[in-house]
């Protein structure tokens, strides 16, 4: 049998690393399915889930019978998570983390059909499976089994090897049984030994060129060989990076580019791609700067406007795309994009010529022609942000689909869109918090010019674009991770200039950036400046900003949230760098840290997410909560930089809480009409708290699909909700509250504000020279009768939603408020809400209740001088009132439980339509009548 391996040997020597490759070893080193094998597991290596566990360790093992490259376990003798003594490993005495297990594969597995066992797959666990031992890449271990007599080159055992000219490397050949072993270099024998199982050969990389090293073993009539193709490269030319060139792709002319890759500590890099048929050629070996930091190469003779897919081959072993490229080529996901024509003209991945993610370059690109370059950005406190996930905002899932709905967002009144991450992420359908390339828009949503067009069109409608930026971490496909990491997509190694090997804080996903590293700081600054400049975005919401620290808090959430001066320093640096070139950019942090820290950074100019979801969800169900933490004043901040929100992508919907868990007595909040009433109440008070606001998509019409039924999965759009009258009421209120906020400074920076939010009846009073605002609302589930509510001064006030004048003779006024009813007064008469909108859209709707015939009736109807009302049985004590169609209360009173028949003199009523309302602690009834 003859076997061949390819190793590229160049400038740097990768020594055999027991910590990387010796997580699982065997005796003998070249095991055979018919022989007894000892498996030796080091629990301190790989994912190290069993390290120092001081527990019994069990092997979960399977036979692979589908081929020598298969990873499918065909025969699995043990059940996961059981205390099976046959699966228990033996702990080596005196070794805290070394365990062994012995078996003869051909007799160990139940294999009645005599299938060939090519490999053993294995994972290690504690007794119940709550702790695991897997590879560094979090995968299964595999041990290849020799089929008969064989020889293998077991060292080097990595995927490729690099050597400097003149440097040495020892090759090791091992056999499955004692034999005569020899090494031949280009056909010439260079080492030999008889009747041995191991032979080593010290090789010297004397000069550049291609060499074949063959290990040959002879045992009687059995012969086997394995060959290694060795490519020795010359030293990289040392030369300074040309003046003006930066990291990434530098377009010099329509036919020339300079490629620059930062790879400190690496010794060799080549450019491979469409332009050289993906061959590793001497003329495409990159130069190296004198400090050893950067590799660079000038490419000439490129065809203008032609797209080229390319990669860097680093130290003859690591294939990566350019970290600064604006377009990627993906071996796993691009075919779906091509099939669905989501990115017209996308080239297929060069399958068979390379592997791993690649990137594009293209000279003489047509620049996007920006149309809307003059627009006014709202001041931070005036922002009404609409958080939006392109994937779920429209079923087309494209940038163009968002463009098509910009008029809807403009009509709603929002002045900013926060796009959940659109940078290239792993996979095609994602929230986007698994970034891989930080300068490339994700292709699934469309082209980069589609994204620019979205930003441009939004600006033309007065809508700013804020990008959700993920710079706490990157995932395994990221080139900077893969330059210094375990395996293909494993954890960063300790020498990675950008990333921590182990995250320093809780709740981390992916691989944690080291934000104290000068490499990371320069990268972050370049990412931020790029999007602000190239795409003209208006600012960022930084995901997981509390993670920007090297203070190691492990899994201690409380410690992580405490004041961290090093994190404050990091964020001031990032903020200063952004503001230096883009002084009007918005900077919003998802920090959720100690108030002392947030106050310092907020007063420095940054804005912060303020998560009020729990309080609003509780109130949506009918509970009473004090949500005064939604006010920057209550946090003792000097500036209104708190983006408090009822909902975000991370939390359940408030309407979902109302409809599924709302209280049912004395008011049934689970009924849609009552749920809308409740959510209207929450919305009015939410927008009345001064400061920037954020809406999570579809909250404006009461989206109610559960988040955690499939947290990261695609959610239905529910645009049809806008056709439902009840949900229209909520939408209209959002629209009016946003209009008030945008038009009146009292809702943004009042001279004085008073928030009384602890009781069942809550109040917000805002005072400003332009206009004062008073909002009162009943958060209880019973009628609030004759409750005294405050006004900042006497005089004439105006009910915004009804247009009614309200004369206040005392600074405290008695009100009767139904459950979820609210009133909003302004000191200045404002135009009534838009034409076609009636007061019933805003004044808490009265739920319609089916009453047996004859139990609740108004007569005569139409009425001339007198109206009679028969209340239903059981409603012997109720509040009642008559209101006109503008919402003005014409008559109010209380039934004392004596008469079921009420009489009203209508002599002073003008002709028209009126509403009679009656409500007690169980129900609310209303019915229209006509006064002749």
Automatic annotation (TrEMBL):
InterPro entries: GH (IPR017853), GH13_cat_dom (IPR006047), Ig-like_fold (IPR013783), Ig_E-set (IPR014756), Secre_tail (IPR026444). Residues 1-22 form the signal peptide. GO terms for biological process: carbohydrate metabolic process. It holds the Pfam family Por_Secre_tail. It comes from the Bacteria. Keywords: Signal. Residues 387-741 form the Glycosyl hydrolase family 13 catalytic domain. Belongs to the glycosyl hydrolase 13 family. This is Por secretion system C-terminal sorting domain-containing protein. It comes from Algoriphagus ornithinivorans.
């Amino acid at each position: 049998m003859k076997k061949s391996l390819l190793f590229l040997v160049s400038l740097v020597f990768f020594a055999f690393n027991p910590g990387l490759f010796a997580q699982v070893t065997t005796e003998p080193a070249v095991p055979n399915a018919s022989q007894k094998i000892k498996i030796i597991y080091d629990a301190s290596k790989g994912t190290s889930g069993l390290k120092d566990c001081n527990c019994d360790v069990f092997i979960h093992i399977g036979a692979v019978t589908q081929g020598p490259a298969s990873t499918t376990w065909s025969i699995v003798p043990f059940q996961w998570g059981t205390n099976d003594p046959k699966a228990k490993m033996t702990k080596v005495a005196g070794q805290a983390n070394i365990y062994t297990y012995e078996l003869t594969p051909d007799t160990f597995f139940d294999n009645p059909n005599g299938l060939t066992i090519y490999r053993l797959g294995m994972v290690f666990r504690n007794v119940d499976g709550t702790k695991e031992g897997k590879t560094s890449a979090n995968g299964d271990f595999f041990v290849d089994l020799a089929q008969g007599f064989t020889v293998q080159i077991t060292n080097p055992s990595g995927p490729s090897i690099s050597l400097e000219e003149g440097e040495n490397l020892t090759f090791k050949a091992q056999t499955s049984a004692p034999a005569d072993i020899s090494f031949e270099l280009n056909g010439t024998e260079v080492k030999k030994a008889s009747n041995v199982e191991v032979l080593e050969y010290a090789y010297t990389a004397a000069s550049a060129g291609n060499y074949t090293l063959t290990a040959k073993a002879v045992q009687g009539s059995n012969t086997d060989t394995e060959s290694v193709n060795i490519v020795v490269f010359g030293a990289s030319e040392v030369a300074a990076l040309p003046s003006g060139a930066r990291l990434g792709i530098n377009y010099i002319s329509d036919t020339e580019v300079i490629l620059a890759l930062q790879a400190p500590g690496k010794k060799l890099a080549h450019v491979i791609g469409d332009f050289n048929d993906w061959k590793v050629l001497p003329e495409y070996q990159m130069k190296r700067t004198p400090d050893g930091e950067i590799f660079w190469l000038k490419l000439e003779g490129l065809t203008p406007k032609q797209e080229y897919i390319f990669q860097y081959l680093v130290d003859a072993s690591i294939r990566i795309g350019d970290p600064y490229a604006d377009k990627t080529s993906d071996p796993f996901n691009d075919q779906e994009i091509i099939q669905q024509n989501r990115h017209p003209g996308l080239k297929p991945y060069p399958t068979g010529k390379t592997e791993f993610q690649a990137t594009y370059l293209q000279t003489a690109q047509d620049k996007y022609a920006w149309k809307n370059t003059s627009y006014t950005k709202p001041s931070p406190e005036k922002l009404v942000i609409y958080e939006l996930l392109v994937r779920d905002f429209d079923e087309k899932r494209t940038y163009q689909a968002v463009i098509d709905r910009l008029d809807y967002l403009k009509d709603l009144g929002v002045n900013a869109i926060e796009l959940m991450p659109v940078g290239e992420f792993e996979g095609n359908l994602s929230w986007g918090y698994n970034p891989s390339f930080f300068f490339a828009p994700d292709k699934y949503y469309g082209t980069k010019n589609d994204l620019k067009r979205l930003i441009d069109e939004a600006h033309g409608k007065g809508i700013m674009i804020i990008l959700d930026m993920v710079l706490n971490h990157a995932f395994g496909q990221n080139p900077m991770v893969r330059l210094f990491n375990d395996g293909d997509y494993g954890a960063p190694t300790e020498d990675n200039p950008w990333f921590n090997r182990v995250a320093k804080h809780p709740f981390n996903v992916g691989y944690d950036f080291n934000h104290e590293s000068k490499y990371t700081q320069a990268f972050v600054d370049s990412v931020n400046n790029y999007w602000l400049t190239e795409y003209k975005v208006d600012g960022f919401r930084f995901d997981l900003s509390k993670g920007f620290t090297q203070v190691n808090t492990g899994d201690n959430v409380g410690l992580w949230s405490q004041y961290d001066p090093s994190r404050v320093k990091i964020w001031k640096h990032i903020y200063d760098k952004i503001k230096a070139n883009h002084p009007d950019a918005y900077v919003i942090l998802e920090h959720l840290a100690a108030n002392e820290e947030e106050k310092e950074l907020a007063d420095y100019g940054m804005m912060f997410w303020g998560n009020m979801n729990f309080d609003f969800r509780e109130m949506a169900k009918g509970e009473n909560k004090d949500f005064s933490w939604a006010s920057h004043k209550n946090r003792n901040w000097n500036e209104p930089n708190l983006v408090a929100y009822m909902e975000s992508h991370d939390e359940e919907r408030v309407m979902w809480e109302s409809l599924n868990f709302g209280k049912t007595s004395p008011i049934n909040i689970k009924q849609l009409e009552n749920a809308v009433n409740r959510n209207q109440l929450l919305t009015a008070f939410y927008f009345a708290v001064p400061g920037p606001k954020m809406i999570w998509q579809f909250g404006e019409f009461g989206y109610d699909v559960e988040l955690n039924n499939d947290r990261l999965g695609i959610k239905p759009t529910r645009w049809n909700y806008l056709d439902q009258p009840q949900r229209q009421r909520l939408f209209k209120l959002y629209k009016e509250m946003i209009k008030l906020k945008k038009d009146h400074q009292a809702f943004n920076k009042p001279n004085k504000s008073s928030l009384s939010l602890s009781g069942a009846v809550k109040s917000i009073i805002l005072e400003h020279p332009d206009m004062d605002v008073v909002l009162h609302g009943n958060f209880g589930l019973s009628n609030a009768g004759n409750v005294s509510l405050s006004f900042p001064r006497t005089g004439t006030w105006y009910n915004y939603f009804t247009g009614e004048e309200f004369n206040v003779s005392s600074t405290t006024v008695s009100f009767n408020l139904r459950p979820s009813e609210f009133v909003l007064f302004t000191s200045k008469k404002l135009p009534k809400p838009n034409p076609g909108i009636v007061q019933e859209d805003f004044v808490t709707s009265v739920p319609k209740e089916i009453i047996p015939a004859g139990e609740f009736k108004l007569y005569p109807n139409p009425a001339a001088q007198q109206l009679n009302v028969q209340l239903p049985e059981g409603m012997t004590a109720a509040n009642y009132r008559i209101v006109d169609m503008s919402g003005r209360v014409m008559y109010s009173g209380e039934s004392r439980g004596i008469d079921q028949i009420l009489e009203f003199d209508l002599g002073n009523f003008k002709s028209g339509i009126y509403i009679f309302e009656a409500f007690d602690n169980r129900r609310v009834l209303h019915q229209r009548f006509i006064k002749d």
